[in-house]
Amino acid sequence: MKNHTSTLDIVKASKSKIEDTDFENLTFGKVFTDHMMECDYVDGAWQTPKIKPYGPLQLDPSAKVFHYGQAVFEGMKAFKDKDDHIWLFRPDENFRRINRSSERLAIPAFPEEYFFSALEELLKIDKDWIKKGFGNSLYIRPFVIATEEGVSAAPAKKYKFMIICSPAQAYYSGEVRVQFSEKYSRAADGGVGFAKAAGNYAAQFYPTNLAKDAGFQQVIWTDANTHEYLEEAGTMNIFFRVGDKLITAPTSDRILDGVTRKSVITLAEEFNIPLEVRRVKVKEIIDAAKSGELKEIFGTGTATVINPIRGFGYAGEKYELPKLEDSYAKVFKDKLMKIQYNETEDKYGWRYAVK
Amino acid sequence: MKNHTSTLDIVKASKSKIEDTDFENLTFGKVFTDHMMECDYVDGAWQTPKIKPYGPLQLDPSAKVFHYGQAVFEGMKAFKDKDDHIWLFRPDENFRRINRSSERLAIPAFPEEYFFSALEELLKIDKDWIKKGFGNSLYIRPFVIATEEGVSAAPAKKYKFMIICSPAQAYYSGEVRVQFSEKYSRAADGGVGFAKAAGNYAAQFYPTNLAKDAGFQQVIWTDANTHEYLEEAGTMNIFFRVGDKLITAPTSDRILDGVTRKSVITLAEEFNIPLEVRRVKVKEIIDAAKSGELKEIFGTGTATVINPIRGFGYAGEKYELPKLEDSYAKVFKDKLMKIQYNETEDKYGWRYAVK
């Protein structure tokens, strides 16, 4: 994976913006580093990747991404350890997933050697943007968009694969309460829910706004057919702790195969936490909340790592979760971050050194 | 509707591209007229619409349309009659629908007076691009995209509403055969299938490619829950003629409320064609095909008007439809086009004069 032979065109920015950046007061995903990676697909092939100064794209108004939503993305993070070494966390998972997403949206696969050589070079050039300290990271956003001109509803013949990077502190602030969806849906069987397809996200904004109006920060989506089963939160997979047992929904063509999710599943075994990967009934979670057996709900995702949920709403009722000293959420988050920041052993080989 | 008071900024192109355009050999949606309409949403309001020379957009790589698919569109046509008058067909339906689509994707509604004044002015400026003759038209593509910079997964605060126009001949060439979907889905209950959301289209490309590999041109989507009911074709609503009776699926949160579809429903009554708007079982269509009662299948949509289907595939079997002299498809297409081109009475008030 690290034996790169592909060429790479590099044009450096004449001046860095880093001095103008307040790293103590970052809004998530608003500030970008000095450089970006851009690679065009034309004439049936991905061309030489370019690293160049971060700046605007010029696209025809008829570019297919604007009309038919042919766009997929990934979310990753780079971490800097105490010795100024830079680490990625399971980047092979993100690489494979963006190509799975692309396949489902009829976008050509991106070559592995281009992805890793360009990403690592980009991180080295913008390494000063990665700040040390637990919680600090560089959020990395690889994405692909259809750039071909023309409004006929067919897959494009031209694409852009890009990587942009944004310095990040912790993603969420404040307590998070979620609403279990009773009417709206995120994904259909046989649809694109498992893909990080751009259109999956826009579809969630309106129902999420309704949930916000009702006093919640996010929605936990239920299955579109019956709304009886809890699936995922749109930007996070979801885990439920009932008694000492952890439960999470299986991945499917509706549910994203989250990297943090699968890492938590592995760690649960290491920690001897009983875990069931199976469909989760709304009713069983409500019953567990009422009987006091529901101890925790938390979300997992690259941006948030582990996001504890303080309470939830369903069918007009609101439920609060207990405040635990020894929460699973805390245990997993601590372990994952220690792995990510090179502060503990990495027995699964999840860390990836950027050298 | 036609009493416009809004202002409009107009910058004309220095040189027309019309002489370079071969109107006898147009590829659908590839060539655009000299001008376009652009209107920005910033600071909580739509600003003054602009008509300006057709040209590229400059967007930040983090613009939300690229990452979260906040994008909706419409398809309309302008027609020129024998006396050089320009007509639209039920544009109020498209205007209302783009705002319904926008609402579902958390995009602010566009003002009616801006839409009509800017569209009509654009058509007048580019009127030479609308060619006379049955089948010739100007395809009009209004669309909205989220332009705000930043990769946090939340509705944008900045948008662009645009109208671009492309001269068109007939949309489909050759015979069209469709595959009834058995596995893949277009939309979920509680999802965005009823909206002209960009992401709905990208999601169809991969299954449509599989159908093409199997010898079909399009997919007729079935309901995601059971795949037992026929819904729509993604860019067309679908009608089935069994004996003398016409059947089409009801609109829902999964099925687009097509303008051509609803016009056909109205005309069916005028023509005394028995019509049932109800769920259509795959099984009843297969049975009708086997017994010889299935006479026609046709799609309806702005680009194609009425698109006769020659055959279909399901569960590994292929079915051919009879060639009828007196097809409903032909009757509807002829009537609709005569209304569109101002060659017959317009008793429903569907024509809209651009003056």
Automatic annotation (TrEMBL), chains A, B:
E.C. number: 2.6.1.42
Reaction(s) the record says it catalyses: L-leucine + 2-oxoglutarate = 4-methyl-2-oxopentanoate + L-glutamate; L-isoleucine + 2-oxoglutarate = (S)-3-methyl-2-oxopentanoate + L-glutamate; L-valine + 2-oxoglutarate = 3-methyl-2-oxobutanoate + L-glutamate
Pfam name, any one: Aminotran_4
InterPro entries associated with the record: Aminotrans_IV (IPR001544), Aminotrans_IV_CS (IPR018300), Aminotransferase-like (IPR036038), B_amino_transII (IPR005786), BCAT-like_C (IPR043132), BCAT-like_N (IPR043131), BCAT_family (IPR033939)
Cofactor list: pyridoxal 5'-phosphate
CDD domains (alphabetical): BCAT_beta_family (cd01557)
Pathway the protein acts in: Amino-acid biosynthesis; L-valine biosynthesis; L-valine from pyruvate: step 4/4; Amino-acid biosynthesis; L-leucine biosynthesis; L-leucine from 3-methyl-2-oxobutanoate: step 4/4; Amino-acid biosynthesis; L-isoleucine biosynthesis; L-isoleucine from 2-oxobutanoate: step 4/4
Family: Belongs to the class-IV pyridoxal-phosphate-dependent aminotransferase family.
Biological role stated in the UniProt entry: Acts on leucine, isoleucine and valine.
Record's protein name: Branched-chain-amino-acid aminotransferase
